[in-house]
């Protein structure tokens, strides 16, 4: 089996989960589930980033210790994963001993090699972003962009990592590895960033300014700054698991591609003599109702509350169906309800219940044997083979929204087949030929339902399991074997009904 190690970014625990967190988890979960279905040995990591100045300040504002503060918020992210049916194998917290030890080992190794040095720094610092700034970061009028908040000029000693020494290597690596950054057009963005000389990277903060961090192993008066702490989680989680490193995919938001993941991280690994991840997949941003998400204005989607109202698979489906991986997209209740009603309830849900209802009505709730296929049956089977052979490559290229569209088109065609064959009319006939055709049509409906939904398994796993259950079917261990049209459902007892996607009332 091929090892496939995939990660999300770890979420900063200075606030509750939002739609962007949910999307990244669901997207990564769909990739992980699909790779498992394709036969890979998948290991899926997510987690939380729990150090830094913002957390120290928030903890003080609440009158609690930082550890108690993060212990109160990290479980919200774990709960979100559980509620979204995320199949992660591990959840790492950067406050765990296993992570801290690997970070310290890595820092000591690089310090011993001369890759880390101490120097005095004088310049501008953004507390909000927890980063030093340069003149090029200013607006044209000399002011600082609002994103940086209050900017102060400071002078202090810190430790620096020799980032610039590896700039030529990284440029060559990106140019010679076209799949390192996905979508590929984002590699141009990284190379543009690398067209200017890289400054060495400040990797520490003095303890008198920031206490909440991992102490440097070679100087306990300083703590590790975000890069060697947060980024190292991808490696620290599997450092004791042979065969998993390097990661196959890091799935991240486009805002943290440059410089953290596409510049700092590969250079850190190269300096430490560790392999670079195969690929970094940068996804887009979600807006809500055409505007930036904002809790203060109420323009916000709370994932767990949404799941409570509409079900987990409805949210998973919409997130994957609506966004083209790598591009931005907008979440609106109106568009969600269009997808929910037209595609899930009226199309897929309708097919499920028509199949169950007519099998109960005309075949004593048992899937009958199919006779020789006529032209409509042959056409539907041919469409299935075409759909299957198109969807798998689309999923392999992360075009899940297009793959879902093709799968839904097959469901639509199956509903059209039912209208054409009209089993309710055949059931009224006493002609042997009509009765034989009725049996064939019922068997065809059930098999098409089984097959069509098998393509949605990674996206709406709970619903697919329920559909298999009401068809009296247990899937085998080899997913590709599930994609062949045959008579495996013959003789199965089916349920009377199954309401997967009840019609919701519009909610704000």
Automatic annotation (TrEMBL):
It holds the Pfam family tRNA-synt_1g. SUPFAM superfamilies: Anticodon-binding domain of a subclass of class I aminoacyl-tRNA synthetases, Nucleotidylyl transferase. Its EC number is 6.1.1.10. NCBIfam families: PRK12267.1 (NF008900). Belongs to the class-I aminoacyl-tRNA synthetase family. Is required not only for elongation of protein synthesis but also for the initiation of all mRNA translation through initiator tRNA(fMet) aminoacylation. This is Methionine--tRNA ligase. It comes from Synoicihabitans lomoniglobus.
């Amino acid at each position: 089996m091929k090892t496939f190690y995939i990660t999300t970014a770890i979420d900063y625990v200075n606030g509750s989960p939002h739609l962007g967190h949910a999307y990244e988890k669901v997207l990564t979960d769909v990739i992980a589930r699909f790779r498992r279905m394709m036969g890979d040995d998948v290991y899926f990591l997510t987690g939380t980033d729990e150090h830094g100045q913002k957390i120290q300040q928030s903890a003080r504002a609440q009158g609690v210790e930082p550890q108690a503060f993060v212990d109160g918020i990290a479980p919200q992210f774990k709960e979100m994963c559980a509620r979204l049916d995320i199949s992660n194998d591990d959840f790492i917290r950067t406050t765990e001993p296993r992570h801290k030890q690997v970070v310290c080992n890595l820092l000591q190794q690089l310090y011993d090699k001369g890759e880390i040095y101490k120097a005095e720094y004088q310049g501008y610092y953004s507390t909000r972003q927890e980063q030093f700034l340069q003149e090029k970061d200013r607006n044209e009028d000399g002011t600082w962009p609002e994103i940086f908040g209050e900017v102060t000029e400071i002078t202090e000693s810190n430790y620096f990592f020799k980032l610039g020494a590896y700039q030529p290597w990284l440029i060559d690596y990106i140019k010679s590895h076209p799949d390192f950054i996905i979508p590929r057009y984002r590699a141009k963005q990284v190379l543009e960033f690398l067209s200017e000389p890289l400054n060495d990277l400040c990797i520490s903060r003095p303890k008198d300014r920031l206490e909440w961090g991992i102490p440097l192993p070679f100087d306990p008066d300083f703590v590790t700054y975000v890069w060697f702490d947060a980024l190292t989680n991808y490696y620290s989680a599997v450092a004791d698991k042979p065969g998993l490193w390097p990661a196959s995919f890091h799935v991240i938001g486009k805002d943290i591609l440059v410089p953290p993941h596409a510049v700092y991280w590969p250079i850190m690994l190269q300096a430490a003599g560790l392999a670079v991840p195969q690929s970094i997949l940068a996804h887009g941003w979600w807006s809500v109702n055409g505007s930036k998400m904002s809790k203060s204005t109420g323009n916000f989607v709370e994932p767990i509350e949404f799941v409570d109202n509409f079900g987990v698979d409805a949210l998973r489906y919409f997130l994957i169906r609506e966004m083209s991986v790598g591009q931005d997209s907008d979440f609106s209740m109106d568009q969600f309800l269009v997808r929910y009603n037209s595609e899930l309830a009226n199309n897929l849900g309708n097919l499920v219940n028509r199949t169950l209802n007519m099998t109960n009505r005309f075949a004593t709730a048992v899937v009958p044997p199919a006779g020789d296929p006529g032209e409509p049956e042959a056409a539907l089977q041919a469409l299935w083979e075409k759909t299957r052979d198109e969807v798998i490559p689309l999923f392999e290229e992360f075009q899940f929204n297009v793959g879902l569209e093709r799968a839904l088109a097959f469901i639509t065609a199956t509903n059209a087949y039912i209208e054409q064959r009209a089993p309710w009319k055949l059931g009224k006939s006493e002609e042997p030929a009509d009765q034989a055709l009725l049996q064939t049509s019922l068997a065809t409906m059930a098999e098409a339902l089984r097959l069509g939904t098998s393509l949605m398994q990674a996206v709406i796993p709970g619903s697919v399991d329920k559909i298999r259950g009401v068809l009296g079917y247990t899937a085998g261990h080899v997913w590709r074997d599930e994609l062949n049209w045959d008579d495996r459902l013959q003789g199965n007892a089916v349920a009377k009904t199954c309401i997967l996607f009840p019609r919701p009332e519009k909610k704000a």
